[in-house]
Design goal:
four-stranded antiparallel sheet, 2 domains, alpha/beta, 28% strand, Rossmann fold, single chain
Length: 304
Amino acid sequence: MNSHNRETAITARDLRKTYDKKVDALKHMSLDVRKGEVFTILGPNGAGKTTFLRILCTQLMPTSGEAHILGKSVLSEPEAVRETIAMVPQDAMAYANFTPWDYAYNFCLLRGMDKAKSRKNAEESLKAMLMWDMKDKPCQSMSGGEKRRALIAATLASDAQVMMLDEPTSGLDAIGRRNVWSALRDRAAQGKTIILTTHMMDEAEMVSDRLAIINKGELIIVGTTSEIKKKVPFRYRVIVPESEIDKSKFTEMTKIGDRLVIYLKTDEEAIELVRDMLRKGVQAEAAPVTLEDAFVRLAGGELQ
């Protein structure tokens, strides 16, 4: 996707959040998100993802630094910022006897849409979230995943220029997750700016135009998935049982229980290793390096 020379939608400069003068939830975070892109903040639990989003959506004051959304200051013009954003918080749950229709339709009215447009947007977004058949079902009788989808539908219906979603697919099954990804990609194609957080590698890889990896409150790297993977000096990984391998032959490996992930520079080396294993009657699988490999290498940490 051609996202160069695009206007900037979100600018964060040197954002810090310190609790009790000791705990740095965010350390000097600076990044730009472009209009019309899906931008993912990826990191383990406790990395500072939620803190960052809460500052952007005017719920939390930073200790220092500045942020702007569509040219408006998050610190000095919070009301103006709120008019341009819609947010799905991480722990928000639809509740009581409201229905998904109530949420989506009323959220549109609250944002100043007329009734016809509110109805149209509510219908489109509920259908996108596969919730049309349960649009009149009270949220209290729904599963956690269904409640989550109802809130995402309301956010999508809002037509906000900037949509922020904190761990939007937690608690959703594979089909529900893919629907959310697809709906977010559609909104970005319409020019909306989407910023979401996740600790799930496959999610970041599937949905993002660009992503930022953060760990312990620090920004590690920003780029496209392929740019970030290129930071790993190996192209392939082969997973083998540890007991079957002569470790002295390889320079880079990660141990996962009784298995080893061996990193190799070329597909020839990977195929050769898999062949060796097959000759011994041992199961081995080769694949290109993943975003998770890059994360572990760059952040020096493991993901849960």
